[in-house]
Amino acid sequence: MSSTSTDGIVAPLYRINKFAVPTAARSEFVSLVEKTLAVIRSQEGYVMDLFLEQHAGPGKFNFCTMIEFESEEFAPKVAAAIAEFDKSLDIDRAVLMEKLGVETDSASYKSFQAA
Q1: Is 97:104 a contact under the CB 8 Å cutoff?
Q2: Domain count, the chain
């Protein structure tokens, strides 16, 4: 018996973060992202990530991270781990990004399934 129902199927969650990073902030920014990704990679539900730097084309965002999780249920746990990491470093991420002049655009995505 076959069915096209997707009941019971858990869809992956993708977190995409885009950054416009001034040249003067590049080193500090890259260091923070690498440390943050190390925390994320150790979390339950983590599948894979990409940390990309733009090398051609128009657009203001010159860095991007894409992180895949097994499902959206893991997002709050990962967010809590990152908050704990920030606390251990005594940083406020939003304040630091403003200080560095980094503009961000972040959102969570699921795979598009055309009907």
Answers
A1: yes
A2: 1
b/e for 46-61, b at 16 or more Cβ within 10 A? beeeeeeebeeeeeee
Question: pLDDT tens digits, residue range 46-102?
Answer: 999 999 999 999 889 999 999 999 999 999 999 999 999 999 999 999 999 999 999
Residue 52 falls within a domain, yes or no? yes
Dist CA 36 CA 31 (whole Å): 9
In a domain, 8, yes or no: no
Report the CATH number at residue 102: 3.30.70.100
Tokens 């950054």 locate to 19
Report d(CA 73, CA 31) in Å as an integer.
Answer: 28
pTM of the model: 0.86
Range of the structural domain that residue 31 is part of: 13-109
